[in-house]
Amino acid sequence: MYAIFVLIIISLIVAIGFLVTFVWAVKNNQYEDDYTPSVRILFDDEVKKDTAKEE
Amino acid sequence: MEQQTFYYDNKIVRLFGGATILWGVVGVLVGLLIALQLAFPVMNFDIAWLTFGRLRPLHTNAIIFAFVGNGIFTSVYYSMQRLLKTRMYSDLLGRIHFWGWQLIIVAAALTLPFGYTEGKEYAELIWPIDIAVAVIWLVFGWNMLATLAIRRVRHIYVAIWFYISTFVTITVLWVVNNLSLPYDWLGSYSVYAGVQDALVQWWYGHNAVAFFLTTPMLGMMYYFYQKQQIVLFILINYLSFTFGH
Questions:
Q1: Cβ–Cβ of A41/B157 closer than 8 Å?
Q2: 10 Å Cβ neighbour count for B25?
Q3: What is the second-level CATH architecture of the domain B10-244?
Q4: Is the ipTM of this complex over 0.90?
């Protein structure tokens, strides 16, 4: 049965890690604006024609 | 406001995109051959390394890790740069990631058909290749998280959260399930025995479906689907602003 405890512990560590990250994200105001990010991604940056070595 | 000029690394996107198509075709053709073998046993050609048991893991690994894997990397390298308004952290890490991953796929094609396997479904690769996958995967994660650190946009778009979850969980799943004791360069025994091994194997297997075949696709969809729908999107917003408020 020992393997299941290994898996539970590892899964909990990952889950707690993401919970901490989520709390960070909220405190970082990542969720403050729930409209702009969805629109911002639609606009891409200008490509300069003369130096188009974008590669 | 200061105007900044920077360039995206589109070459790495093209490399991964090309690899996706190439391995996709190869993986499907191997799948077609083994499917035909089920109906027409003569298609085994009496050659050991062309038989179903040898080629089936090659087919699944090619589709999952070569086709889907390269597809994930294509979309990560394309969308991360545009979402974060920055070039990837390191061109060199990107190249190591690309060529390392292709080398792993070639190594898989040179071992699985000849019977070198750990015998765990979707984790058949022998231990030296397992380690190579882990190292290259960490290079990918390093490049991704470092890019996040140098971003020009404060907000981390939802697609990127899906990419991060993919990286973290696959690292854990891969390492835990592949822990084994080598007896030579080509073979090893799992550190788990019997039912313990089965438990760990399918903890890996099912979660790998979730975090290799699902979360990265959701990340892709949250980016590319919106971009595809831009016209409809603008129209809906126009309508809701005009008539909805």
A1: yes
A2: 12
A3: Up-down Bundle (1.20)
A4: no
